[in-house]
């Protein structure tokens, strides 16, 4: 498509663009879009979580540094491509990794290091709250972290004045507003889908637990205000503008949409916010979001109940591990090539190896792998130990080796999805994929389709990911018609006529995945032995 550079330059100069920034697990990304929702420029900042004192964390100073660096990279891209300075926007949105534990006192001082979604250290709290509420409370959820801190009698709990998520924190320092989009909020504490707010019955139940512990605050006092998509959630303050752009070119006063979690922005970016639609994000972690037609009949520890950015009920299957171990093996193969004096492009190496996996045995030749860098709640692990094992008669070759690592990256996810499809009878017409697993055309889709036995589609815009999704939510806030729903806006204004590149499940691949899963579930005892045998003494 030919771009009208002069028209784009005029739109940028006149503030007719929306910006989305998403803080992902390995990269902070910014995407600038026009009124037609087409990405115009992007910027990024690479970062990594740290494992400190047995807790996965990021420092808030690194968050601020990353925001500045990401915006600077975007502004430089705009200048280079269109020869215009980025000074004003029609709207802005912030997204981040869901869940976790970010707490501050009443003066805004952080009380303990950020505990991210990746931590599996709240098992006791998760179990107790699930029983108390009769509602699934996964270990990642903010309320599980809070209650575990109470059970541990951590001194900081009495001083809490504000509890939020990563997107809520960034939104707060940019606008001064303690608010959160309903999708991200649904990963903090259960949402009543009838009111679009935190569940009042469960708030009261938790306050009873807090009172028993001698705490004077009420939970609703320390949680952010919940807002649904389309609402205005404050404006960029002068201090927020200087944080993003220390050069002073970016003007303050820009309206911001409610900050959202990466699950919600994934739904927006794949047009999967209506019933019988779903999306799966697969990279460092993997999670699938299925918009439900009705509530589930039972409570399952493996299934989160969250919402779309508009507040509709969603079943979420979230797994802490996906392609990290596979990426490490590919990196090792790269070292082999370098040691032999051969230079190979990393993207090309992934493409060759991923496509080679399609030629392997349907059941991976009897090989078994667990890519658990972190704990995995669906299979009951508080810690992970990456593990590869085989029998003497397994068909050990490169194609099967890569194939089994692709399969195992989705093993825990399949266990959760089988609950939805086989026990609850949930119907899904099409699953949209995005994230690193799908970068090599056709391969990740084929493996995912085999795992869930549902057609998987990847759109041309999938590479833009959640940053584009939150930019769409920011655009929806300022451009929607009166009474226009998010589902209608996305379907008619953004994705009209687009369904992406679709892969239908291959019956033999699906059967092979089932055989692999028998091996995966029966072999969990081996992974358990590895964890127990390699714990620090």
Which short descriptors sum up this protein?
537 residues, seven-stranded mixed β-sheet, globular, five-stranded mixed β-sheet, single chain
- Average residue-wise pLDDT: 94
- Proportion of helical residues: 25-40%
Widest sheet, order of strands: 16-17-15-14-20-21-22
Query: Structural class per helix/strand content?
Result: alpha/beta
Query: How many β-strands, per DSSP?
Result: 22
Poorly predicted segments: none
Q: Which sheet architecture does the biggest sheet show? A: 7 strands, mixed
Give the SSE layout:
Layout: H1 5-13, E1 18-23, E2 27-33, E3 39-46, E4 50-52, E5 55-57, H2 60-82, E6 91-96, E7 102-104, H3 123-133, H4 142-151, E8 162-164, H5 166-175, E9 179-181, H6 182-185, E10 191-192, E11 197-198, H7 200-212, H8 219-222, E12 225-227, H9 238-244, E13 260-261, H10 262-269, E14 277-282, E15 286-291, E16 304-307, E17 313-319, H11 324-339, H12 346-357, E18 368-370, E19 387-389, H13 398-408, H14 411-423, E20 430-434, H15 443-452, E21 456-458, H16 465-479, H17 486-494, E22 501-503, H18 507-522, H19 524-533
Parallel strand pairs: 1-6, 6-13, 9-12, 14-20, 20-21
Antiparallel strand pairs: 1-2, 2-3, 4-5, 7-8, 10-11, 14-15, 15-17, 16-17, 18-19, 21-22
């Amino acid at each position: 498509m030919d771009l009208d550079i002069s028209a784009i330059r005029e739109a940028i100069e006149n503030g007719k663009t929306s910006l989305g920034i998403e803080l992902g697990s390995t990269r902070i990304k910014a995407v600038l879009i026009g009124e037609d929702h087409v990405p115009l420029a992007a910027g990024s900042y690479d970062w990594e979580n740290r494992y400190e004192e047995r807790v996965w964390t990021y420092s808030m100073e690194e968050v601020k540094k990353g925001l500045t660096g990401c915006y600077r990279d975007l502004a430089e891209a705009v200048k280079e491509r269109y020869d215009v300075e980025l000074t004003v926007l029609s709207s802005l949105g912030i997204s981040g990794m869901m869940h976790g534990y970010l707490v501050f006192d009443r003066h805004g001082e952080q009380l303990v290091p950020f505990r991210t979604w990746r931590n599996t250290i709240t098992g006791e709290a998760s179990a107790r709250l699930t029983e108390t509420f009769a509602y699934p409370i996964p270990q990642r959820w903010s309320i599980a972290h809070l209650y575990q801190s109470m059970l541990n009698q951590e001194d900081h709990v009495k001083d809490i004045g504000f509890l939020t998520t990563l997107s809520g924190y960034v939104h707060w320092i940019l606008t001064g507003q303690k608010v959160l989009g309903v999708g991200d909020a649904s990963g903090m504490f259960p949402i009543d889908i009838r009111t679009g707010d935190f569940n009042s019955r469960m708030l009261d139940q938790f306050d009873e637990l807090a009172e028993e512990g001698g705490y004077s605050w009420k939970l609703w006092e320390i949680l952010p205000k919940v807002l649904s998509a389309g609402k205005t959630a404050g404006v960029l303050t002068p201090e927020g503008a200087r944080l993003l752009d220390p050069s002073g070119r970016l003007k303050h006063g820009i309206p911001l949409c409610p900050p959202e979690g990466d699950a919600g922005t994934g739904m927006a970016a794949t047009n999967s916010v209506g019933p019988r639609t779903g999306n799966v994000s697969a990279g460092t972690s993997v999670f699938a979001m299925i918009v439900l037609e009705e509530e589930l009949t039972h409570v399952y520890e493996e299934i989160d109940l969250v919402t779309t950015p508009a507040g509709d009920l969603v079943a979420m299957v979230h797994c802490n591990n996906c392609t990290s171990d596979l990426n490490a093996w590919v990196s090792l193969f790269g070292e082999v090539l370098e040691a032999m004096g051969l230079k190979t492009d990393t993207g090309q190496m992934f493409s060759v190896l991923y496509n080679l996996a399609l030629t392997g045995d349907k059941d991976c030749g009897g090989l078994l792998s667990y890519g658990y860098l972190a704990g995995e709640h669906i299979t009951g692990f508080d810690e992970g130990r990456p593990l590869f094992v085989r029998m003497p008669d397994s068909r050990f070759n490169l194609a099967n080796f890569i194939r089994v690592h692709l399969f195992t990256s989705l093993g825990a996810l399949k266990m959760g999805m089988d609950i939805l499809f086989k026990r609850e009878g949930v119907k899904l017409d099409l699953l949209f994929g995005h994230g690193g697993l799908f970068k090599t055309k056709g391969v990740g889709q084929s493996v995912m389709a085999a795992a869930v036995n549902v057609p998987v589609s990847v759109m041309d815009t999938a590479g833009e990911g959640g940053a584009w999704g939150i930019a769409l939510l920011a655009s929806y806030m300022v451009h929607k018609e009166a009474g226009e729903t998010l589902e209608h806006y996305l379907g008619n204004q953004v994705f009209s006529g687009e369904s992406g590149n679709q892969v239908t499940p291959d019956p033999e691949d699906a059967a092979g995945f089932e055989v692999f899963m028998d091996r995966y579930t029966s072999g969990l005892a081996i992974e358990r032995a590895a964890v127990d045998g390699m714990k620090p003494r």
